[in-house]
Amino acid sequence: MTLYAQYYREFQDKYTMYIPLTIILQSCIGGIAAMYILMNGLDTIPSLVQLFVCVIITSFYNAAILAQLREKWVFNTLLLSLLFNIGFIISNAL
């Protein structure tokens, strides 16, 4: 069994328990990413695009939970959001 399948199965089994935890985690990571993007200034187009993508992906995850999408969509959106936001944090912190 792959690591993805293992984590997805656990997420699916305890879905209602993970909802508040992942909303808080993902929103905090998205807020930190937005802070680092804003600290570098918004005087270039790439920084505006980074901020736009950060806010849209973070909001889309919260909307996916509120819309009660299937667990697989919510899990994949969580992974995508965390991947992008951690990437933004790393790229702007250096």
What shape does the CA trace take? elongated
User: Per DSSP, what share of the residues sits in E-state strands of 2 or more residues?
Assistant: under 5%
Structural class: mainly alpha
Sheet with the most strands, sense and barrel status: none
Task: Quickly list its features.
single chain; mainly alpha; 86% helix; membrane; transmembrane; transmembrane helix
Description:
The chain crosses the membrane at residues 18-39, 45-66, 73-91. Keywords: Membrane, Transmembrane, Transmembrane helix. The protein is mostly helical. The protein has one domain (19-93). The chain contains four helices and no strands. It starts with a helix and ends with a helix. The longest helix is centred in the first third of the chain and has 25 residues, at 15-39. The radius of gyration is 14 Å and the shape is elongated.
